[in-house]
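One-letter codes give the sequence; the integers encode the fold. A sample entry reads:
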Amino acid sequence: MAKNQSQAIGCIRSLYRASDLDEEKTYRKARLLLGIYRDVCWSAIGRSDEAKEDLELCGGELDRALTYLEIFAPEEERNRFETKVKSLFETRWMVELMERAMMKSRDFPHNGELYFEILSKCYLDRFKYTEAEILEVMHLERSCYYERKKEAILVFGLSLWGGSIMKLKKYLASESASNAEI
């Protein structure tokens, strides 16, 4: 088992070198992003409820409410609503990037399922597990848990910054080039 674990971290480090990513910097960013996930989701739910209330105040039916906001609403009210909706879309976009990175982490050939479970229980599930609960549920020793957790965060960071975000950058660059040609 120890050999498998050393293979996993060796593979992770090789992938970081191949992706030209700074392992420590990516680890810190990934851990911070995972750490705010629950709060971001909670905030997004509150903001979406506010946007829904704004639409209901404008007439209840979506089409009528949007028509009112577009044609009759004062510019300040329209701008406030647009800002809320834009923020919700940006949040949803970031959550989707994280979800894709989580799925890619789960598919990692060394311990992917374990990494996915650790990240889910530590950062993503609505219920916030204590360390003791995670150790018990996952049948892990504390030292093993911390090693796998670090590996899981590294794989998540690699999946996000070496995968999803790199694809997005390439897409945006190609779109920018296409628009420049027009």
Remarks:
- The chain has one domain: 2-173.
